[in-house]
Automatic annotation (TrEMBL), chain A:
Keyword Phosphoprotein: no
Transmembrane intervals: 12-29, 41-62, 82-105, 138-165, 185-205, 212-230, 261-284
PANTHER family reported for this sequence: INTEGRAL MEMBRANE PROTEIN-RELATED, MEMBRANE PROTEIN
Coiled-coil boundaries: none
Protein known as: ABC transporter permease
UniProtKB/TrEMBL annotation, chain B:
Protein's recorded name: ABC transporter ATP-binding protein
Key words, A-Z: ATP-binding, Nucleotide-binding, Transport
Record-stated family: Belongs to the ABC transporter superfamily.
Superkingdom to which the source organism belongs: Bacteria
ABC transporter domain boundaries: 13-245
Gene3D superfamilies (UniProt xref): P-loop containing nucleotide triphosphate hydrolases (3.40.50.300)
InterPro entries the UniProt entry points to: AAA+_ATPase, ABC_transporter-like_ATP-bd, ABC_transporter-like_CS, P-loop_NTPase
Organism phylogeny: Bacteria, Bacillati, Actinomycetota, Actinomycetes, Micrococcales
PROSITE patterns, A to Z: ABC_TRANSPORTER_1 (PS00211), ABC_TRANSPORTER_2 (PS50893)
Cross-referenced SUPFAM superfamilies: P-loop containing nucleoside triphosphate hydrolases
Amino acid sequence: MSRAEVLDGPGAGLPVAAPAPVAFARLLRSELRLVLGRRRNLVLLAGLALVPVVIGTVLLVTRDSALSGQGPAFLAQVTGNGLFLVVAALFLCLPFLLPLCIGIASGDAVAGEASAGTLRYLLVVPVPRTRLLLVKALAALTFAAAAVLAVAVTGLLVGAAFFGVQDVVLLSGSTVPVGEGVVRVAGIVAYVGLSLTGLVAVGLFFSTLTEVPVGAMAATVVVAVVSTVLDSLPQLSAIHPGLLTHHWFDFAEFLRVQVDWGVVGSGLAVQAAWVAVFGSLAWARFTTADVTS
Amino acid sequence: MTSTHDADGDLAVRTAGLTKRFRSGQVAVDGLDLAVPRGAVYGFLGPNGSGKTTTIRMLLGLAHPTAGRAWLLGSPMPDAAARVLPRVGALVEGPAFHPYLSGRANLARLDAGDATADPRTSRRRADAALDRVGLSAAATKPYRQYSLGMKQRLGLAAALLQPRDLLVLDEPTNGLDPQGTREVRHLVRELADGGATVLVSSHLLAEIEQVCTHVGIMSRGRLLLQGERAALTEREAARLAVTTRAGQADAAAEVLRGLGLADVARDGRALPGGAGTARLTAALGPTPPEKVSAALVHAGVDLVGLEVDRPSLEQVFVELTGEGFDVAR
Ligand SMILES: Nc1ncnc2c1ncn2[C@@H]1O[C@H](COP(=O)(O)OP(=O)(O)OP(=O)(O)O)[C@@H](O)[C@H]1O
Ligand SMILES: [Mg+2]
């Protein structure tokens, strides 16, 4: 709607709409306050933040015992360098905990409003449907970013406090200085965050299909789990490159001497494709569906 | 923009053949032609499940009609939603808000979505709306802790956040105590006095009957009748009761039929006039009562009494829909 569009019809003092970007920003602020202020979401973030604390504590306690050094990749390195707690915690959260939290937030985005009945009142305000969907998508993405950061930041703090921060030993065994190591870990955090955007789009789409938020949440998590299962079947290797979760663990690329940007780029391209497909589906569905809740 | 069509420029709400068939195959709204004049208080009546809420959803662009069209304030819906809806306050199938936000925060949330709302006046308008529905004292209470009537009031407050030209209120008195119901009637009258058009749906006729200037009656998705309230309860549906000497009942019935009155019947009830009298009833139709009495007298019938029974809106309604309001209660 253009800036100075004045409504036709009789009567004085007809409402004039603010420019679309201004109206968008105002609604987005309200939405972010709602999503990030919601107790359930804060509990989820707190739960995620607890993961590095638990891992760090376990590693600290068992540091000098026979159990030290066991476990999945990155874990063994944590006691030598607190920076690796960020990587280890993300590695452990990525298969299930992060998809779960993101499925909850994005599956709830539209379905939650529909089930509460607030959707119909937003639409008659009127909030244009495309604007509402965009705001919901941005808020869900913000929550996903907050989820990843909750793990990363507490990982960094706990790791630094428990084990200190040293020069980073890469996968090949060569060492880079702390400064570069931090940049590389930041790259991992960013890659993990961007890797989850496809799942956010899937959740948003499911969220437009139903008035039952739990259904949309569960379906979203199931998509992530099924993708992982399919990814583990060698018979299906032909479709593996396109799977939602196939490239998730390519974040390890940032720990090679020479980061292969082709690998990073293709991982992000797959996410972009999922976002494009499911974002479009969500838009097509939401802008045409009857709101009968 | 020249969206004000000549034909419906004076109609706040108009629909043409509005139809909604759900995927279940059920036709919830069937060829509806609503006409709500500007400035009217339009009572949109109908028993449970008659299609009132479904109609309102289509008017507001929440649901798409299977067929037919709708105009609000002269502009086609849902195409003109962004322009028209800021001037429309609505309550659709009960209030709905975020349970953990306070009443005031919920209003702020809705206001944040309104591109035509001035953020600087948001708080003041929210407080004024809360005050108007008597919720000021509960403004900071979480919605979750509101009573049913308080929730309904908050829904009304949301509809009053901005000055409105049209209010679409679906069952606004639902859950309110008698005092609250009176207040809603008062509010509706006040809004209408301020120049707004009010479309108010209800299955509880008595609650809104007194404030309506116009009435539309729905049943099974069809609009059985609409028009000015006074006209509906006028002559058309009025019944005539004639009391004569018992022996002249047949002659009187003959006269009534001769006048073209329908539904002539002998009323078997005990009569105040005693055993010597008989009572006949008939649908008066457009015939003036004085013409009936003249014809009876002319035919030599001794007229003991003649009454014209103008039905209440409720009687009209029950006659039309065949369903009592008891169903709704
Ligand atoms: N989403 C839907 N899917 C299928 N049928 C529906 C849907 N919503 C409503 N209906 C049906 O449409 C008919 C009209 O419903 P509607 O809610 O419009 O009635 P109403 O007049 O508002 O009733 P009430 O006075 O009880 O509020 C009902 O028979 C209902 O079962
Ligand atoms: Mg209804």
